[in-house]
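Supplementary Data S3. Sequence and structure tokens for construct A.
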Amino acid sequence: MNIFILIANGFTFLAFFIHTIMGDKDLKIIQPSDNTIDYVNKQEKWTMVRCGWHWISIDLLFASIGLAVINFTDYFDNETTLLQILSVYFLAYAIIWIVVILISKKFEKNFLKLGQWILLLAISGLIYFGIDK
């Protein structure tokens, strides 16, 4: 068992759980009401955003499952390559998160209020430092 991978796995599973449950509640706040002008178009866009949101939920779930399998079994022949891919994967998520914040309209403490990039960098770093430990 690798403590770095175990912590990354815990963060990833916790992120999946929070993203799925709490995130969906947040999305419902912005759902258009039936009497909104151009309701059908706005509902279509909102539904697409919700589907994309839960696409990320599934990414987090499968990453968590993968990390658990790597940490608790000998199922994969080349765990190092899979861990390298996951480390880069979470790093890429962090980078795109930062880029989107940079190109979006600014608001007070935007990098802290939308600080998921910190978690993504932490997961990436934990996986990286857990390789071959």
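Construct B, processed identically:
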Amino acid sequence: TIGKRFYCNYNCVMLDCAPITIGDYVMIGPNVSLFAAGHPVCHDLRYQELEYAFPIAIGDHVWIGGGVIINPGVTIGSRTVIGAGSIVTKDLPDDCVCAGNPCRVIRKITDRDRKYYFKDKAVSND
């Protein structure tokens, strides 16, 4: 399911063998993949065509940068930002900037982030 005011750039893959739930005001960059499905590690089990699937849930007001991969069973908290190229293997909390492989919390989003739109670039209130 997709919430209101959803934006998704090009080449997004949503492999939804289990539910994928996307909240309101979510922005997804280019080349993002949401994989709700996977296969066993053991080759004998893969040859039996076994597959698993776990839901993915994305909260409200989330921004997912370009090239991010989200794995099965992950929940992303509201107002969280995921840096480009990250691979999300575990749940991420609300109100955080997260990035990396594997993706992890870099820092909390604070009131200071309301003043600056990029690093030390202040928002003009004129």
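The longest strand covers residues 103-108. The two ends are 39 Å apart (CA to CA).
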